[in-house]
Design a protein that fits this description.
By secondary structure, the protein is of the alpha+beta class. Helix content is 18%, strand content 51%. The protein has two domains: 32-143, Lipocalin (Beta Barrel); 144-207, no CATH class. The protein is built from two helices and twelve strands; from the N terminus they run αββββββββββββα. The strands form three sheets. The protein has a four-stranded antiparallel β-sheet with strand order 1-2-3-4, with no helix packed on it.
Amino acid sequence: MIKKIILPTLLLTLILAFVIFFRHKASAENKVIPAYIPLRNIDSTISYTHGNYSLTVRLSSLGKFGYRLSAQTKHDDTITSQYAFTVNYPVYHFELGDLDEDGNVDICLGVIKKTHCDSTLKKRLFFYRLDEGRVRPLWLGSKVSHELVDFRYVQKNNHSFVRTVEKEKNGNYLVAEYKWRGFGLELAQFVSRNINLNSAYEIFNQV
């Protein structure tokens, strides 16, 4: 009689333990860890003007629904195109720059998401181009050489680069620069390696 009571109770306890464990694991996987809190005021507008052409790109928070990214172009103060779409991921960086050096401004967007090849929430690089007034993906990068911490668009000697802060496997940090090569980013150089985070950001923020 005692065995008949103990065995079902033990089985039920084991089942509940497994359910609690997997729920906790799934919850942990879906959380953005504190190191990935956005570093800048993302809810903002950036404008670019060249001659009689102007581009205004607006990134506005939709709360739990993500962000709204909108782009408006004008020629001689006349609106020539307007386009908007939703970014369904947390955003940690947003700026403009001619990444592929084709003479047109591109949208540089840093998002935090999983990929098909990496189920961990990490910082990614998204770049969009303006094609006949519409915003189209230029490169939706899944990773760089090491774990990405931050990035920015820089110009050196009239050439465009993406400068990054990345985390080394040993826990230190590095600063690298990447160049656009046809269909993606290619490592141009490691500016500095095996340094602490403060030193990395000092180099990262240099003009």
